[in-house]
Amino acid sequence: MRRFLKRLVPDVYLALTLVFIYLPIVVLIVFSFNALPKSFLWGGFTLRNYASLFSGSDGTGILDSLVETLKVAAIASVVSTLIGVMSSLGIAYLKKKMQGLVMTMTYVPNVMPDLVTGISFMLLFSFLGVQKSEFTLIMSHIALCVPFAILSISPKIKQMDKSLTEAAMDLGATGFQTLRLVVIPEIMPGILSSLMLTFTLSVDDYLISNFNVDSSIQTLPMMIYSMAKLGVNPKMNALTTLIFLVVFVLMILSNLSSFKKTNNKKLKR
Question: What average pLDDT does the segment 31-54 reach?
Fold first, then answer.
């Protein structure tokens, strides 16, 4: 009986945790097919929400805000990852005491509330006389993402065998060739995780965007927040469902890729 309870309690705990996490998503997906607009009562199954999402018939500008959000997130993730690679390489060649100091400074923005970061950049742009625009939005998102990029890439650089770069240089490779042909392939998992993490952070951000962009530009989180005051548009349910499905498929493909690489390494051994 005790053995049964020891096995049952963790299983029940895990099941309740999964239900708590995924039940809201299931409800979201179900109500994306709801025929009643702006209602939490089920009014029948319909695909009208998905059709109107791509037709833009009601002029809500959801797709425009989505495109703007994805554009800003793509730029912020790529630039912050490039800065993260260069910064992580520079940190790797510092003395250990300096490495600890620099990494501590890197941790500070990660634990800083977004409210503080958003207001700080708003005051900085005002002090410099820079008007709020898409440029200020992108710059604030890059600043948000850089520390996370460094934390994603630095562990991979630490795990890399430094003798590889030394061997490449001894064999006549230039510094750029060593970086491109040796270092980048070795830290590629960290670069990919940095791109995904920073992209997600940028897409998800509301506070920093709200403080550092003018009223003519709206990101998707800003539009969702403004729409939630009057009731979420059913088109938004459809859009978030599609985003979830895309992320879910990408996660499956990523896991399958890593699983194949692991199997290939085992077969080679």
Answer: 80
99-113 burial, b for 16+ CB within 10 Å, e for fewer? eeeeeeebeebeeee
Taking the CB of residue 202, how many other CB atoms lie within 10 A of it?
27
In the prediction, which pLDDT does 60 show? 57
Stated as kind and residue range, the H or E segment containing 239 is helix 234-268
Asked if 106 and 133 touch (Cβ cutoff 8 Å), the reply is no
Q: pLDDT class for 228, splitting at 50, 70, 90?
A: confident
User: Which residue type does 148 have?
Assistant: F
What pLDDT, in 10s, does the model give residues 194-223?
A: 998 899 899 988 889 999 988 888 888 888
Q: Which long-range contacts (CB under 8 A, 24 or more apart) does 125-130 make?
A: 125/212
Closest among 175, 155, 150, 154 to 165, alpha carbons compared: 175
Q: Reply yes or no on domain 61-220 having CATH 1.10.3720.10.
A: yes
Q: Taking 60 as the threshold, does the pLDDT of residue 253 lie above it?
A: yes
User: Tokens 């963790």 sit at which residue?
Assistant: 10
Tokens at 112, concatenated: 């800083």
What are the residue ranges spanned by the domains of the chain?
Answer: 1-60+233-248, 61-220
